[in-house]
Specification:
86 residues; alpha+beta; three-stranded mixed β-sheet
Amino acid sequence: MLALANHLGHPRLGMAISRKSVKRAVKRNLIKRQLRESFRLQQAIIGPFDVVVLARPGVDTLSRHELREQIDECWLKIAKKCVPSL
């Protein structure tokens, strides 16, 4: 995940889930749905950042539960490391 502060006052999400890193469309769509839902629930802790999620090869081998745990951990890391400088 990449994060950059924005001046909009709310977070935005971008996703780069390529066919090269996740072969099957069903799995790519599952990953995107999990990302969107987790982002929706964690917006309050993320803060005003533009976040881009890049899928790495091997992410399609994770179960739904493992995927969701890793996504939630990433949101927490972003919230701790990225303090908006206004």
